[in-house]
Amino acid sequence: xxxxxxxxxxxxxxxxxFVMKHLSSKTIQKLAIPYWILCFVLTHLPPSNALPxxxxxxxxxxxxxxSLLGFLLFSRLRLKTLPVLFIYSLVDExxxxxxxxxxxxxxxxxxxxxxxxxxxxxxxxxxxxxIFPDE
Length: 135
Description:
Layout: H1 5-22, H2 25-43, H3 57-77, H4 81-95, H5 105-127
Helix pairs in contact: 1-3, 2-3, 3-5, 4-5
């Protein structure tokens, strides 16, 4: 799917930086659901040999992808984000074996730690009034 693991790894981080600098809170809220769908599709594609295996690199993908997802969902759900993200990460990991992928507890941990980082960033930006103002 992606030719370069470096490119794929950097996508969530670059997307988050772009989102924070250029988009309004309404636009960020509109991105949450399409990005969530994209995450689901990407994590349920059959494994590909196109991406070389590197120790722990998939955990970076999980962490960074869920960081952006947590941030985007926080813009819509606020306090409900953590339980929603936790339940979704369980569903995501437990359904992957049906698509030829593996369930891994370490992936689940990376998902949730990344989600917590994204939620924390959203909360911090909210309290600093840098984004997500009360409307």
